[in-house]
Amino acid sequence: MAQRLEPVAWRQARWIDAALAVAGCVLTLCALTLAWRAWFGTRDATARTVEELRVTRGELVQARADLDDVTAEIAAAREALGDDLVVRGAQEATRETAKARLDASQAVLADAKARLNGSNTDLVQRSAGLDALNRCLRGTSEALNQASVGDVNGMVRSIDTVDAVCREAAAAL
C-alpha cells in the first residue's frame, strides 16, 4: 500500500515543488528576457548596420561621381596640355626660324660694316690723294702762269715746291 506522506513532509514536498516551479519560472523568465534582449539587440544592430551600409553606399556613389569628375578634369587638362605643347612646339620652331634669320641678318650687317669701314678707309685715302693732287694742280697752274708771263725762275721754284706734293698725289692715286 502506498504510504501516505505525513502532513509536514507533504507540505515540505509541496513547498519544494512550488520552489522548483518558481525557480523554473524564474529561469524561464530569465531565459526569455535574455532571448528577448538578444533578439532586439540583434535586430537593432542589424538595423544600424543596414543604415550604415546605406550611408556607405551613398558615400561610395558620391565618391565614384567625384572620381568621374576628377578623371574628366584630368583628361581635359591633358588635352589642353597637349594643345599647349603643340603651340609651344610651333612657337619654338618660329623662334628658331627667327633666330636663324637674325643670325643671317647680323652676318650681312657685319659684312656691310666691314665693307663700309673699308670704303671709309679708302675714302680717307682717296681724299688725301685728291687733296695732294689738288695742291699739285694748283702749284702746276701757278708754274704755268709764271711761264706764260716769262718768269722762268718763278716757274722752276713753283715746280720744285710742288714736285714732292705731285709725287705724293701720284703714289696715292
* Total separate domains: 1
Number of helices: 2
State the distance separating the first and last CA atoms: 180 Å
Question: Which residues sit in consecutive blocks of at least 5 with pLDDT less than 50?
Answer: none
What is the approximate shape? rod-shaped
Mean pLDDT: 86
Q: H/E element string?
A: HH
Radius of gyration: 65 Å
The counted number of beta strands is 0
What can you see in these coordinates?
The protein has 173 residues and is mainly alpha-helical. It has one domain. 94% of the residues lie in helices and 0% in strands. The protein contains 2 helices and no strands. The chain has helices at residues 7-148, 152-172.
Write the topology of this structure.
Layout: H1 7-148, H2 152-172
Summarize the structure.
It is built from two helices and no strands. By secondary structure, it is an all-alpha fold.
Which labels suit this protein?
173 residues; mainly alpha; 2 helices; rod-shaped
